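stage 2 :: seqdesign
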């Protein structure tokens, strides 16, 4: 039975090329993020704080509009979402005839 066991290396070799491409892109994105964060931390702390706040707000409102937030943030987004427009409500308004 031990002869039929598939090693981890053989499983990795059997992965399609697109998996390796996505992993490479993810690794590159992590490296770029670390580089950008290090550059931001060298800036004035007020400017860095405002920049991080603006990026966070844009990402959060994108999650509220598209409702594609992470699972652990769903209770918070569910409370906030009725006060802001969403993609579903916009599509429903567009389908109504004037």
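stage 2 :: out
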């Amino acid at each position: 039975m031990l002869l039929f066991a598939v090693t981890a290396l053989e499983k990795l070799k059997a992965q399609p090329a697109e998996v390796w491409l996505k992993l490479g892109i993810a690794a590159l994105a992590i490296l770029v993020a670390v580089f950008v964060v290090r550059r931001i931390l060298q800036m004035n702390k007020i400017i860095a704080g405002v920049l991080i706040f603006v990026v966070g707000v844009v990402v959060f409102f994108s999650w509220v509009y598209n409702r594609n937030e992470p699972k652990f943030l769903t209770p918070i987004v569910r409370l906030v979402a009725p006060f802001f427009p969403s993609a579903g409500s916009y599509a429903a308004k567009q389908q109504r005839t004037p």
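stage 3 :: structure notes
- Helices lie at 8-13, 17-41, 45-66, 74-80, 87-95.
- The longest helix spans residues 17-41.
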